[in-house]
Amino acid sequence: MTDSKYFTTTKKGEIFELKAELNSDKKEKKKEAVKKVIASMTVGKDVSALFPDVVNCMQTDNLELKKLVYLYLMNYAKSQPDMAIMAVNTFVKDCEDPNPLIRALAVRTMGCIRVDKITEYLCEPLRKCLKDEDPYVRKTAAVCVAKLHDINAQLVEDQGFLDTLKDLISDSNPMVVANAVAALSEIAESHPSSNLLDLNPQSINKLLTALNECTEWGQIFILDCLANYTPKDDREAQSICERVTPRLSHANSAVVLSAVKVLMKFMEMLSKDLDYYGTLLKKLAPPLVTLLSAEPELQYVALRNINLIVQKRPEILKHEMKVFFVKYNDPIYVKLEKLDIMIRLASQANIAQVLAELKEYATEVDVDFVRKAVRAIGRCAIKVEQSAERCVSTLLDLIQTKVNYVVQEAIVVIKDIFRKYPNKYESVIATLCENLDSLDEPEARAAMIWIVGEYAERIDNADELLESFLEGFHDESTQVQLQLLTAIVKLFLKKPTETQELVQQVLSLATQDSDNPDLRDRGYIYWRLLSTDPVAAKEVVLAEKPLISEETDLIEPTLLDELICYIGTLASVYHKPPSAFVEGGRGVVHKSLPPRTASNESAESPEAAPTGAPPVEQPDVIPPQGDLLGDLLNLDLGPPVSGPPLAASSAQMGAVDLLGGGLDSLIGGTNFTSPPAAAVPASLGAPIGSGLSDLFDLTSGVGNLSGSYVAPKAVWLPAMKAKGLEISGTFTRQVGSISMDLQLTNKALQVMTDFAIQFNRNSFGLAPAAPLQVHAPLSPNQSVEISLPLNTVGSVMKMEPLNNLQVAVKNNIDVFYFSTLYPLHILFVEDGKMDRQMFLATWKDIPNENEAQFQIRDCPLSAEAVSSKLQGSNVFTIAKRNVEGQDMLYQSLKLTNGIWVLAELRIQPGNPSLTLSLKCRAPEVSQHVYQAYETILKN
Amino acid sequence: MIHSLFLINCSGDIFLEKHWKSVVSQSVCDYFFEAQEKAADVENVPPVISTPHHYLISIYRDKLFFVSVIQTEVPPLFVIEFLHRVADTFQDYFGECSEAAIKDNVVIVYELLEEMLDNGFPLATESNILKELIKPPTILRSVVNSITGSSNVGDTLPTGQLSNIPWRRAGVKYTNNEAYFDVVEEIDAIIDKSGSTVFAEIQGVIDACIKLSGMPDLSLSFMNPRLLDDVSFHPCIRFKRWESERVLSFIPPDGNFRLISYRVSSQNLVAIPVYVKHCISFKENSACGRFDITIGPKQNMGKTIEGITVTVHMPKVVLNMNLTPTQGSYTFDPVTKKVLTWDVGKITPQKLPSLKGLVNLQSGAPKPEENPSLNIQFKIQQLAISGLKVNRLDMYGEKYKPFKGVKYVTKAGKFQVRT
Question: Where in the cell is it found (chain B) (predicted)?
Fold first, then answer.
C-alpha cells in the first residue's frame, strides 16, 4: 500500500467523503483522511473547505497526526483567519508540553501561521520558548522571531524580541548561536539601517567558536555574518583568517565559498609582504578548483564567482588554467563561463595551450559556444601581443572552413585586431574580401565595411565592394548604414577622383531618404565638412584611431571591490551590486573592502585612505563612450571601442568647431534644419556642475606670496569613472607662468603607463606647454605629482561657463574625459597695471550697461590688506580715495588675451561686506573676475 | 531564505509543491518553462533564473527538476546544496528519487520537507537525525503500522540533534561490528587527436559504511598522505589532527556516508590506463564515411581493465552506421540523439578490441564540420590509480574488536578522447 492511493477519487464528491472520514470516531480512519487531505494539498488542490474538520483533529497525542494537522494549518490559516483562532489554545497548551519536540513544533508552527490576530497570542509562548531550558526549543524560537518580524515588525520591536535574539548570540549552544545569527541577518536585510548585528571582537570570538561546532548551514550563516565585520587592524584580520581557513576543506560548497568570501575580504587588510599572505593565497586555489568537480549547477555559481576572484587576484589561479578546459558534455552555461575565465587567465606562458583549445572548441556543435570561442581567439590576440600572429593565422584557418557563422564571427574579431595592431596584418584582407557575399549578420557586415573603408587605398576594387552594399542601403540595419556612410566618405577622401558619384549617392541616401536621425545628422556633418574644408574633413575622418585596450570587459575596480564583498550571493552571479536588482524599497548598504590598517603603524600612506568615502564634490566627467565625438570619428564599432582619440585631438576640435561656428555656411541647395545639430554643443557643455566653483572655496593652505592664490587640490576625475585612475589637481600662477598641478593616483590593479594629456579648445586658449611627463610607470596604489606648464596660445572657442576646461587624459588603459573650472586669476598678467589717466579715460569710455556690481560678504579686511592680497594675484591698485569714511580702491587687471578689467572696490569700515563694481568691454568675464576676487580675498 | 519548492517532471507537470512561507502561485514556474524551452536540452537550463519578483534556483536530478523560489538575497550555492540534499534524502528513504517514488510516499515527503526547512532555514538535514524523526518506509513497517495503529513519526527529540556530534545518534547497537571503506577514484581527462593528454586529474572519494556500536572514535592513516593536498571533509573529521599529523580522526556517523573527497591535480602526473586509436573521416560529396576505433591498455599497473563502454555523439547528418565489432556489441540511435554506444567489456592484450565500418550520411548535405568526441567508461578493480593506500585503522573508545575492510577501485570519470 502506497500513498498514491490518496490520489484516487470516488464518484461521490471527494470533499464530502473526506469530511465524513475526518469526523469518524476511529483514530486510524481520521489519520488516513488527514493524509488524503495533505496529499491533495501537495498537488495544489484546494481543500480549504475542510478547515474546521481538520482543526478538530488537532487535539491528539499522536504526534504524526498532530504534525499533519499543523502542516494543513500552515497552508490554509491565512484563508480562514477566524477559524484559525480556534487552534490558538492548543498551540499555547503545546508550548508548555513536557516534550521539547512538541514545544518546538508548536512554536514553529505558530510562527508559520501568517494571521495577524494569531501573532498577538504568540508573543507570550515565544518569550518563554526563547528562554527555554532545552536548546532545541531555543533554536526553533530564534527562527520564529524572524518569521514574526516578517509578519509584524513593529510587534517584534515593541516586545523586545530583538534584544533577546541578540543575547542568543552568546548562547552556550552553537546551533542556537547559528540560528540567532541567521534570524538577525534576515531581519537586518529588511532594515539595513538598524544596527542589529553590531559586531565587536568579543562577539566575533563567540561566533568563531560556534563556527567549529555548528552544522554546515549554521556555518554558512556565521561566515556570511563574519564577512560584514571590519577588523580593527591587520593582526585581528589575520587571526580571523586563520580560524576560518579550515572551512575551506568542508564538503559543502556553500560553506567553502562563504569562507572564501571572508578570506578575500580580510586579505585586503594584510600586507603583501607578510608570509601569511602568501600562505593564504596558496590555500585558496585548491578549494576553488574542487568546486569545479561538483554538479553542474554548483559549477556555474562557482565559475561566476571565480570570474570575480580572478579579476581581483589573478595570482591565485594562474597555474590552474587546465581545470577550465571545456568538456564537450558540459552544459552550455558552464562552457561559456569556463571560456571567459580561460581568457582572463591567458598569458604568454600558457597561450599556446589556450589557443589549441580554442581552435578545438571552434569546431564544436553548439553555435553560441563556437561563436564565443572564435571571439575568444580575438581577445587573446589583443591581450597577449606575442600571440597575435598565431591568433590571426588560427582565425584564417577558421575562415577557410567556410562555416558561415564562424566566418562572420572571425571577421568581427579581426576588425578588433586591426584596431589593436594597425598596418600589421593587412595581408589577410584579400581572404576576408572573398567571403563578402556570405555575410548576413549586421555586425559582421559592419565590420567588413569598416575594414574596406579603413584600408580603401590598398583594396583595388574598394569602390565596387562598397557600391555593392549600397544597393540595398535601406534594408540594412542602422549599424551597417552608418558604417557604410563613413566608409564611403573615407574612400572618397583617399581616392577623390573616381568616387565622387558614390559619395554623393550615399550622402543623399543618408540625408534625404532616411528617417533615422543619427544617420541623417552624420550625413549632414560629413556633407558640410566636405564642402567647407576638405582638409579638415580629412583630419577628422581619417584621424589616427586610438589603440583599443587589452581587456575591455573587466569589471570596474570599484564595482569589483564591492562584488568581492558579495561573493557567493546572487549579486556575484549577476555581477551587479545588489542595489541594482534587489526588489523594491529594501535599502541596501553598500559594502566595501576594508582599508589596510596596520597595528604597529597608526597612520599609513595614502593607500590607507578608505575606498568607500564619497568625495565631497564630484566633478562631471564627460561620458567617454557613445558621445558625439566618438560617433563622428566612426568609432561606433562593436564593444571594445573606447572613446575618441587623443592623438586625433586636432580633429576632435575641428569637429567641435564645425558644430559651434560654421553652421551658417551651409552647403548649397540642401534644405535642412539646424536645431538637431545646434543642440549638440549645448549637450557637450552641459555636464558642467555649477557647484564646482565651490571647490575653490575650500579653506586650507596659506596664500602664496610669490604667486597668486592656489586652491587646494580637488578630485577632478574619480577613480570610479576612469577605470581606476584618479586625478586631482589645481591651477597655479607663479612668476608669469601658469601651471596645472596634478596628482595621478592608480587605484586599479594593473600598472599604468603612457600618460598623455590634451585640452579641448577653450575660452582663453589654455593649452599644455609641454607633454605630460610621467617618468616611471604608475603601479597600483601609487600616486604621482606633476606640474604641467600651460600656455595660452592654444585655439580659442567660447565655452559655457567661460572658465570651463575640458580635458582628456590617456593612459595605456583608455582615454578619459573630465571637465573642470579654472579660477580666472590664473589669467591675470603681471603687466596689468594701467596708467591713471588711461584708467579714467577707459572707465568713462566703457558704456554703463557693461558695469556689473557684486557684493563680497564676510570679508573684514582693511583697504591695505585687500590691496596687498590682490596685488599678489596681479590685481593692481591704481588709486585709493576716501569718500565719506569709505575707502574706495580703483584697480585694474589684464587677462592673458589682452582684455582689461577695471574695478572699483568700496570698503566701509565696520562692515564686512565689500562692494565691487567691474567694468569691462567684454562683460561676460565680470562674473568670473568677481569669483576670482572672492577666492583671493577669502583665502 | 528558501521560500517554496516545486518538483517538476520532464513533461513539465508540477507534481509537488511545498511552501515554507506564504504560498507562491504555481504560475511563477512559467518563467522556468520559458527558460527550459529556450535551452532546448534539459541539461542546459540555467540554474539561476530571475523573474520580476522572485529568483528561481533549480537543479536537475534523476530526470526531475527541483525548482526553488527565492525572494531575498540568499547564497545560491546554499540553495543548490540544499536541493541536492533533498534529492539525496529521497534517494536514501525510497531507494530512488523518481516521480513514482515521491508520489507513492507523498506524506513522508511532505513530512521530510517540513522537517528539513523551517521558515526557509535548514533544520535537520543529516540522514541519521531525519531517520529518528521520520522512519523510512519498509513493507514490514507499513504492515505493522496498519495493524497496531502506530505511526512512522518518532515522538522523542533526536539524540544527535544538539550534541557536538549531530551526525551520530546515541545508543547504536550491532552484533557484528564492521567498518568498510571504499576508495573510489575517477579519472577526468581530455586526450587530444594525437593521443597526448591535454588535461587529466583524479577525483577521489572515500565512502564509508560503518556499523559500530556505541561511540567509536576512529583513526585512519595512509601510507602516502602527501597525495592528499586538496580535500573536502565530512564534518566529523577533526581538522586540527589532519593538519598536524595527516591522520583522519573522527567519530563516524552511523551507516553509509562520504568520509572525504579529494583531488589529485594535473600538476602530479596522472596515469592514463587506456589508449584509443581512431580514424573517423567523412568524404566530401559522397554521403559516406569511415569509422575505425581500437582500444588498448596503457599504464594499467598490471590489472585488468573491464566494463569498457564507448559513447560517441555523431554529427546530425549521420543517417546510419554499419559497423563490425571484434568483441562486445554496439547500438546506434539514428533518430533522436545520434548516439553510438559500444559495450566492449574487458581488454585482453592479445587481441585488442576494435570497431570498424561505414557511416552513411544524408545525401547532399555538406560534410560535417565537427569532430565527434569519444566518451570512454572503464573500471579497474583493486587499484587506486593515484597510488593512495590506507595504512591502518584504529578504534578507540569502545572495547570490542571490529571487522575492518578497504576496497579500491578506479573508474573513468569524464574521460574524453577528441578525434
Answer: Golgi apparatus; Cytoplasmic vesicle membrane
Give yes or no for residue A276 having a pLDDT over 50: yes
- Rounded Cα distance, A155 and A579, in Å: 28
Provide the shortest C-alpha distance from residue B43 to chain A (in Å). Answer: 6
Same domain, B281 and B253: no
Kindly state the helix (H) or strand (E) to which residue B294 belongs, with its residue range: strand B288-297
Q: For the residues B255-271, what does the mean pLDDT come to?
A: 81
* Adjacency order of strands within the sheet including B247-250: B247-250, B217-222, B390-396
- The residues in A 136-165 lying below 8 A from B, measured between CB atoms, are 136, 140, 143-144, 146-147, 150
Same domain, B105 and B243: no
B283 and B223 part of one domain? no
B120 & B31 share domain = yes
Q: How confident is the model at residue B186 (pLDDT cuts 50, 70, 90)?
A: very high
Q: Which of residues 282-341 of A touch B (CB under 8 A)?
A: 286-287, 289-290, 293, 295-298, 300-302, 319-320, 322-323, 325, 327-329, 331-333
**Average pLDDT score over residue span A881-890:** 81
Cα A641 to chain centroid, rounded = 18
CA distances B26 to B7, B17, B68, B111, B316, Å, are 11, 8, 11, 21, 37
- CATH number of B231's domain: 2.60.40.1170
Q: Which residue has the cell 548649397?
A: A668
Residue B366 resides in a domain: yes
A 10 A CB-CB count for B287 gives 16
Amino acid at B2: I
Cell 565592394 belongs to: A465
Residue B154: inside a domain: no
> Are B14 and B136 contained in the same domain?
yes
Nearest to A220 by CA among B81, B251, B330: B81
Residue A758 to residue A817: CA distance in whole angstroms: 10
Distance of CA A756 to the CA centre of its chain: 25
- Is B140 in the same domain as B249? no
The CATH number assigned to the domain holding B115 equals 3.30.450.60
CA distances A780 to A484, A718, A750, Å, are 42, 15, 6
Cell 571490529 belongs to which residue?
B402
Coil/strand/helix, residue A263:
helix
Tell me how far apart the alpha carbons of residues B357 and B288 are, in angstroms, rounded to a whole number: 11
Domain check: are B22 and B138 in the same one? yes
Supply angle C-alpha B126, B228, B257, rounded to 5: 20
The answer to whether the Cβ–Cβ distance between A583 and B53 falls below 8 Å is yes
For the stretch A607-633, pLDDT in tens is 433 433 333 333 333 333 333 344 444
Q: What residues of B are in contact with residue A250 (Cβ under 8 Å)?
A: 232-233, 235
| Interface check B370 vs A, CB under 8 A | yes
B227 domain-assigned: yes
Tens of pLDDT along A158-213?
A: 888 888 888 888 888 888 888 898 888 888 877 765 666 777 888 888 889 888 88
Cell numbers for A306: 571565480
Q: How far is CA A686 from the centre of its chain?
A: 22
- How many angstroms separate the CA atoms of B253 and B256, rounded? 8
Give the domain range for residue B254: 178-186+196-269+389-405
The total of structural domains in chain B comes to 3
Helix or strand (DSSP H, E) at B35: helix B29-39
Q: What are phi and psi of A165, to 5 degrees?
A: -65, -40
Q: The dihedral of CA A27, A29, A32, A38: what is its sign? A: negative
pTM of the model: 0.70
C-alpha cell at A831: 603687466
C-alpha to C-alpha distance for A303 and A323, rounded to whole angstroms:
11
Surface-to-core class of residue A938, CB atoms within 10 Å of its CB (0-12 exposed, 13-18 middle, 19+ buried):
middle
Residue B112 lies in a domain: yes
Q: How far is B350 from chain A (nearest CA, A)?
A: 32
Residues 6+ apart with CB under 8 A from A133: none
